[in-house]
Design a protein that fits this description.
This protein has two domains: 90 residues, Aspartate Aminotransferase, domain 1; 262 residues, Type I PLP-dependent aspartate aminotransferase-like (Major domain) (Aspartate Aminotransferase, domain 2). Helices cover 36% and strands 17% of the residues. It has eleven helices and 17 strands. Helix 2 runs antiparallel to helix 9 and helix 4 crosses helix 5. The chain is an alpha+beta fold. Strands 4-5-6-2-3-16 form a six-stranded mixed β-sheet. Bound molecules: pyridoxal-5'-phosphate. The site of pyridoxal-5'-phosphate has 15 residues, from helix 4 and helix 5.
Length: 398
């Protein structure tokens, strides 16, 4: 197939551009005003009104009870896993098609990932693959003293039902589905399965602000969820993240542990557990507040772009455009197409990038990276098929 018409079409969406990036930030609102306000006030760092305001705006937008700002999405994931109860030596189930941060956060906890396959339509964790792996590999046993963070007074010593990888008796202490490229996965089924196995769900919704599954915002279904505000995301704070939870106690703990676990006091520095300096600076939160003011308009614009791609690719049977899954509203963070095979994908990547239209393949599957090549896996047929053919195409606001 000749890809020139596709390149011309993408160019027509961004007519004033020579180089067309994959996803660039959009600063069309109060960003400069709020940043200047931070500088004028001297509150540029870990204290200031914009952090609280940004958290509140995220709470209102997503409907979650508590949102806690962090320095980036990876830090938010690390904290979410600690709060879910992940401990060294545990196993955490996730999908192989994800960004490295998902697995890095598992490693930071001293745990190891288990990879189960994705669904063809959502590109996120397949509930059927999850159920199959659990039914073949897991027993549930009562274990004492598993709940809560180590060293926390509220840790219970009561016997808790824990899912164990039955061949090595290793606890499976969390499951992290990811809403890939902004498309919601079948999160309700995943939670229903994990509930049966007593496995807390931590949603990696780094890519899916403004995406909804059956009317509910992604990242608000599991015990905890996270968002990322990296420069390539739908909205950005330069760098930033957010922990989401509907559990007020966990929310309080998330704030405490991400702010060095300092007990509130006007001058004393007393810390009551191992805390992290994962605070989002006020100056970054200020940008976030300005971005949040524009988010509904930005999502509308991204969905308009997605509709134009969808209409265009309808007439090109050789290229499949991936649309939002049923029962979902997607933010279409990164638009995705599927080429017929790996060879066609590679040629498409080469020709588009040669023509200064930035496109890129999906991430290398996590189980193929050297850190995880001995990780436990279910069958990964769909992941392998998709990763060989998928290309992300320019997705900035037009
Ligand atoms: C799926 C996924 N998880 C986690 C992250 C981590 O976010 P950050 O880059 O803000 O650390 C990202 C994005 O970068 C991501 O795409």
């Amino acid at each position: 197939m000749n890809y020139k018409p596709v390149i011309d079409f993408i160019r027509s969406l961004y007519p004033s551009r020579n180089f067309i990036p994959l996803h660039e930030p959009y600063f069309g609102g109060n960003e400069k005003k709020y940043v200047l306000d931070c500088i004028d006030s001297t509150y540029v760092s870990s204290v200031g009104k914009y952090v609280d305001l940004f958290e509140k705006m995220i709470q209102e937008f997503t409907g979650v009870k508590r949102a806690v700002a962090t320095v980036n999405g990876t830090a938010a994931l690390h904290i979410a896993l600690l709060l879910a109860g992940v401990k060294p030596g545990d196993l955490v189930i996730t999908q192989p098609l994800t960004f490295i941060a998902t697995c890095n956060a598992i490693s930071y906890c001293g745990a190891d990932p288990v990879f189960v396959d994705i669904d063809r339509d959502t590109l996120g964790m397949s509930p059927e693959a999850l159920e199959q792996w659990l039914s073949e590999n897991v027993v549930i046993e009562g274990i004492e003293g598993r709940e809560g963070l180590d060293g926390l007074a509220s840790s219970t010593q009561l016997s808790q039902p824990v899912a164990l990888y039955k061949w090595a008796k290793r606890p499976i202490s969390a499951c992290i589905p990811m809403h890939t490229f902004g498309h919601p996965c079948r999160i309700d089924r995943i939670i229903e399965i994990c509930d049966r196995y007593h496995i807390p769900v931590v949603e990696d919704s780094a890519e899916s602000i403004g995406s909804y599954y059956e009317g509910q915002h992604t990242g608000t279904f599991g015990k905890l969820g996270i968002l990322s505000f990296n420069g390539n995301k739908t909205i950005t704070t330069g760098g930033g993240g957010m922990v989401l939870t509907n559990d007020e106690e966990l929310g309080k703990l998330a704030k405490h542990i991400t702010t060095t676990a300092k007990k509130p006091h006007p001058w004393l520095f007393e810390h009551d557990m191992t805390g992290y300096n994962y605070r989002l600076p006020n100056i970054n939160a200020a940008i976030g507040c300005a971005q949040m003011e524009m988010l509904p308009e930005m999502i509308r614009s991204k969905r308009d772009l997605a509709q134009r791609y969808q209409d265009y690719f309808l007439d090109l049977p050789e290229i499949e455009y991936i649309t939002e899954p049923s029962n979902s509203i997607s933010n279409y963070w990164l638009n995705c197409i599927l080429l017929p095979d790996e060879q066609a994908r590679n040629r498409f990547l080469q020709e588009t990038n040669d023509q200064k239209v930035m496109t890129r393949p999906a991430w290398i599957l996590m189980n193929q990276l050297k850190m995880f090549e001995t990780a436990l896996c279910g069958g990964l047929v769909t992941s392998m098929n998709i990763v060989a053919r998928l290309v992300n195409i320019p997705s900035s606001i037009m």
